[in-house]
Amino acid sequence: MILICDHKLLIFNLLLIMSVVACEMKILTFTAYEGGKVEIRCPYESEYETHKKYLCRGECKVLDKDIPVESGSAAKDERFSLTDNTTTHNFTIIITDLRTEDQGQYWCAVKTGLGKYDDYTEIYLEIKHGKSENTV
Ligand SMILES: *[C@@H]1O[C@H](CO)[C@@H](O)[C@H](O)[C@H]1NC(C)=O
Ligand SMILES: *[C@@H]1O[C@H](CO)[C@@H](O)[C@H](O)[C@H]1NC(C)=O
Questions:
Q1: How far, in Å, is the centroid of ligand 1 from the Cα of 82?
Q2: Domain boundaries in the chain?
Q3: Residue 92 CB contacts under 8 Å (≥ 6 apart), including other chains
Q4: Ligand 1 lined by 88 (C-beta under 6 Å)
């Protein structure tokens, strides 16, 4: 995913406005160790203070969302937790007991109330092997 923003590709992309736009959609990358935990902080606009926040896993298709955790209800998977800080307008997702299969694409999402068009920030989680003494 980060490869889209690779230096050489970026120069190439400068010729194509659409690609530059795609490159500017920043992806936040987090790296953690297998067996450890990761804390993903997602900023949001102050207007969304009272809105529901959630984590979407994978492609996050409109009609087929995989939501491991959302604000206001118990997490489907207890390794996931979500804390919303309405003072700093950040919500924090913590995933514990990380496994290799947790690696991949996620989205920090905020329900906008505009039907299916929620506010998304793309996340890429990278899981590394070893280093069991790791404490995040
Ligand atoms: C929100 O973040 C601020 C600044 O880090 C902190 O002082 C406050 O305790 C947090 N509030 C909650 C509810 O976590
Ligand atoms: C939200 O978290 C980010 C990342 O830690 C931090 O830079 C930012 O200041 C926080 N936002 C607010 C409003 O505190």
A1: 14
A2: 26-128
A3: 39, 40, 41, 42, 82, 83, 85
A4: yes
Tens digits of residue pLDDT in 61-99 = 888 899 999 998 888 889 999 999 999 999 999 999 999
Pairing of strands 119-128, 28-33: parallel
Distance CA 96, CA 35 (A): 7
Query: Under CATH, what is the fold of the domain 26-128?
Result: Immunoglobulin-like (2.60.40)
What is the number of the ligand 2 atom nearest to the C-alpha of 90?
Answer: 1
Best residue among 42, 90, 92 to mutate for probing ligand 2, ranked by most atoms within 8 Å of CB: 90
64 versus 124: which is more confidently predicted? 124
113 lines ligand 2 (CB under 6 A): no
Q: How far is CA 59 from the centre of its chain?
A: 11
